[in-house]
Design goal:
With 260 residues, the protein is of the alpha+beta class. 29% of the residues lie in helices and 36% in strands.
């Protein structure tokens, strides 16, 4: 069995073989009628996907690397209202987070809203760092109209740290984000967790246009599967948290995480 270090090395080699596309070039890709679909797999399957994707995709190139580093901190109420909105299948539902793009040294305070039709909208403002309390007045002015809460009403709950590869098809009608090496820290319990070989793929495409990666995913028998980093990270780092709706998914995820 190939060890994790060799898997990571192979993944980076394959990504580096793809034709690069800059962040500036990416900004011109507007997916106006966008649909989002998530898939969950492991690093072995990711290697096969990248091998099959050669010639079909560009890889986003930022700060001399095609693998970006992200840190995201989720904020919630004392009752974990945003977690339970998702757990209970409520729509519309929201999440509040602070995301840092480590390579670019950019940080944003964000509100994600998923509506009754499954569409997700994201609003954000740039902030100096993860320490958003330093700009409390600005943060409150942003948050209150959107979630009807201020920073005083919420607190840090779960932070994740992960690596991301971003691919764009040659037709520039879809964007594919591939997240792996996801680590969690829970501020309430002080527990930590790592997702091992788990890989989270999100396909964002313009309507129902033909998609090269969908054909690849079907060949690899990787099926669509919802995955919330906030909710799964919360369950993995808080043993006392109610998670009835996620039990089946957690069993499946643990098999991937514990794969030898």
């Amino acid at each position: 069995m190939v060890n994790n270090e060799h898997l990571d090395e192979r993944i980076r080699d394959l990504v580096n073989q793809l034709e690069p596309i800059t962040l500036e070039e990416m900004s011109g890709i507007k997916l106006m009628n966008r649909t989002d679909t998530k898939f969950v797999t492991n690093k072995h399957q990711l290697i096969r996907l990248l091998e099959m994707a050669r010639g079909e995709y560009y890889a986003q190139f930022t700060n001399d690397s095609m693998v970006a580093e992200y840190i995201t901190t989720y904020w919630d109420t004392d009752e974990l209202s945003y977690y339970f909105q998702h757990h209970n299948g409520r729509a519309p539902r929201q999440k509040v987070r602070v995301r840092t793009y480590v390579g670019s040294d950019l940080t944003f305070l964000e509100v994600k809203t998923k509506n009754n039709h499954g569409r997700t909208k994201k609003k954000r403002i740039e902030v100096p760092s993860q320490e958003v309390e330093q700009v409390r007045a600005e943060a409150d002015e942003f948050l209150e109209p959107k979630v009807h809460r201020s920073l005083a009403d919420i607190h840090r709950t779960v932070q994740n740290h992960f690596h991301r590869i971003t691919l764009v098809n040659k037709g520039k009608t879809e964007r594919l984000t591939i997240d792996f090496d996801v680590e969690f820290h829970n501020f309430d319990t002080n527990d930590e967790a790592h997702t091992g070989e788990l890989v989270i793929i999100e396909l964002k495409r313009d309507g129902n246009v033909p998609s090269p990666v969908l054909d690849i995913l079907r060949q690899l028998r990787i099926k669509p599967s919802g995955f919330s980093k906030y909710c799964i990270g919360s369950v993995m780092t808080n043993r006392g948290l109610k998670h009835n709706m996620f039990k089946e998914k957690m069993v499946w995820i643990r098999k991937l995480v514990n794969r030898k």
